[in-house]
Amino acid sequence: MNHFHELLSDKSKFCHQIECLITSIDQINNDPIVKERLEKLKHSIESCVENCGRVYIFGSRMYGIAKDDSDVDLYFDTGDCFSGKISDDYTRQLQLIDLFVKAANKEFIGLEIMTETRIPIVRFTHDSTNFNCDLQFRSGLAVLNSDLIKLYLSMDERVRWVVIAVKHWAVSFQLLCDDFSTYSLIWLVLYVMMQYKIVPPIIDLWRMHQKHAPIYTEGWDTRICFNYDQLKPKKSSKSSLSKLELLRYVFEFYSESNSIRLQKYVLCTVLGEILPKKTFYSTFISKVNAMGNYQCQIEKFEKCETLINTNFGSFNRIELQNPLKLCNNVIPWLSDTNMNLFIDLCTKSANSM
């Protein structure tokens, strides 16, 4: 408990740490030299395969919470693949990785193909920019997911503060790894923010986009990741909860006393509600159909019943619905040891506050 007491008990000291961290992060993300290095990195990757596609940055470098030593997540669209043409073709993705590795010059150090991951990636260090990188070829869905997170973090300054604070907490306790990504952690936080009306659930964004034409990525309608300008007047929260209160509520939400209950439900990002796992497939369809204007997603969702029941069928772990690819669980890593550790750390942290 000493580590928890040291990290969280002195609230003013902890807040000062986070404010300093945010200042440092903002300096890095707004630094023209860093931006120039990122552009150089993208150009170097694109140059490996002449006249072939475009590189996109996603992850923490896109939504503005990267530190100086943060990795760079990249997606290489080798030509008309952003929408997901090869998203289900694992073999083709590996072929493209092999082609890249063979074409890579001496700028790319320590090239390592990772096939144990859900999406195959190639990991390397880019010598001239000194960035550690993960490069994938699946689809642009990760880019759009990052766009969506960027939008949510911009809705209320408290949200970004809490996300950065929780990430700092997770790093302090060595929680983050390949199986527990910053992306997963952010959505765990955003779901709690939905409970306290700090940010809206996904369905509210859909209502604002219902007049726009569908934009499909991996077969899912991702139109909510576009036309952000129309959301600006409608996104402020009336809640007066402080940043520290919200941080404590995140820890309390996933603490032992509440997590036992949560394991019986799916944390539904679309509705901002918990839905029973036993009837998640049918309950989600009926609830969303009653609201209307979500037909494109429901049609795709209905075709994934077996996958949905598999991804959300465990009653001994917390499961949170992907906000765009609705059949997926954002946090499949939260099982057994990983889940118990996460819950234990949340419980102790909540008690320390």
UniProtKB/TrEMBL annotation:
All copies of domain Poly(A) RNA polymerase mitochondrial-like central palm, residue ranges: 37-153
InterPro entries noted in UniProt: MTPAP-like_central (IPR054708), NT_sf (IPR043519)
Domain of life assignment: Eukaryota
GO biological process: RNA 3'-end processing
Pfam families given in the database record: MTPAP-like_central
GO molecular function, one term: nucleotidyltransferase activity
Protein name, as recorded: Poly(A) RNA polymerase mitochondrial-like central palm domain-containing protein
Taxonomic classification: Eukaryota, Metazoa, Ecdysozoa, Arthropoda, Hexapoda
